[in-house]
Design goal:
alpha/beta; globular
């Protein structure tokens, strides 16, 4: 089977393939356009780590940094200009996909400053500013699903801004995210916004769950514990999908849908495999189910194109088995609540660290440009 066939099968199964990466180089060389043309890529996600990596490599940003330095732009303004330029240009590249899918795909995400993850008011202000600055209808503004992020998500949606909710690890938090989405749409309607124009995805992180739980299972060290390695992340995502099916069949949702609201699709994020002993496509082919997005680093995309085993829905009807797996994890001594707390805190910290690295890189580039 050819690579195009595997990725086509994935798309036909109802999984939208988004690339988890963006850079000026990808845009300038035509690499991203090629992935859209040849690899069924219908969206792009970014995060602070992706931008930190992009800006630290090569010379693709030098010209724009020089122009901004000559204008006297400060550090924050320069970072905003560099990142939103990439996102705006990517959004233009995906405009045909956006139009062809009635706004479902063709989406490009940009994250609010991760230093604001615990400040709802500042997050809302930043989200609105990014929405206006990029000024493209196929933008998604990423807001972390921290406790402080939940009201910010509702308030941002209420202003008619489309949102990618990120850093979701647990079923409990995911249910709160869907609640925040419903409330945001209800407020948006009250504010006079057309619900047809508001879109959202809920980014449920996958591989990091296995990385954390496997580490704890290894520390427990019993045969029963070791037998559960590599099982948690996929089970967790399958439980999340069951919650999605339940809540988007509710009367509350049906009322919103009647007003033109769009379903908030689950998005499988963190799908690059961290343990080399596992199949490098497991978080793709084991999570095939309709009405989802899988955002992949290019390495995972290429692996999926080469040898993923796409053979139908692997999620529907698996909730009971997935919950039984979690009962086994707790029985051997895994504190699931603590796992999710650690992962959320680490996720925020990682993005804050990447943002600091990004600021450091751009500081050096500005200094160099000013001579």
């Amino acid at each position: 089977m050819s690579s195009t066939d595997r990725l086509a099968q994935l798309s036909e199964a109802g999984v939208s393939i988004w690339l988890d990466d963006l850079s000026r180089e990808r845009l300038d060389t035509g690499n991203l356009a090629g992935l859209i043309r040849d690899k069924h890529v219908v969206g792009v996600t970014t995060n602070p780590t992706i931008f930190a990596n992009a800006l630290s490599k090569g010379e693709a940003y030098d010209k724009q940094v020089g122009e901004l330095a000559a204008r006297g732009a400060d550090l924050d303004a320069t970072v905003r200009e560099l990142t939103t330029t990439d996102v705006r240009n990517a959004a233009d590249l995906f405009r045909d996909v956006y139009t062809a899918t009635n706004g479902v795909d063709g989406r490009v995400s940009i994250e609010v400053d991760p230093r604001l993850a615990k400040d709802a008011d500042a997050t809302v202000a930043e989200a609105q500013d990014l929405w206006k600055t990029v000024d493209r209808p196929n933008l998604l503004v990423k807001i972390p699903a921290t406790e402080e992020g939940l009201p910010a998500i509702t308030r941002t949606l209420a202003e008619g801004v489309s949102v990618n909710v990120t850093l979701i690890f647990s079923e409990e938090r995911y249910r709160a995210v869907i609640e925040a989405y419903f409330a945001g749409l209800e407020q948006a309607k009250a504010n006079g916004h057309d619900l047809k124009g508001i879109h959202s995805v809920a980014s449920f992180f996958v591989s990091r769950v296995d990385a954390e739980i496997d580490k704890r299972l290894d520390a427990i060290g019993t045969d029963e514990a070791k037998a559960l390695r590599g099982e948690a992340a996929i089970a967790n995502a399958r439980i999340a999908y069951a919650a999605y099916e339940e809540l988007f069949a509710s009367d509350r949702w049906k009322a919103l849908a009647a007003d033109g609201a769009n379903v908030q699709r689950p998005l499988w994020a963190s799908t690059g495999v961290k343990d080399p002993s596992y199949s490098d496509t497991r978080y793709v082919d084991q999570l095939v189910v309709a009405n989802t997005v899988n955002t992949m680093p290019e390495k995972t995309l290429e692996a999926a194109a080469d040898h993923a085993e796409i053979d139908g829905d692997k999620v529907s009807g698996t909730e009971t088995a997935a919950r039984a797996l979690f009962a086994k994890l707790e029985a051997v001594g895994i504190d699931i609540t603590d796992v999710f707390l650690v992962l959320e805190n680490e996720g925020v910290e990682k993005f804050e660290k990447s943002w600091s690295e990004l600021l450091e890189t751009v500081t050096g580039q500005l200094a160099k440009a000013k001579g």
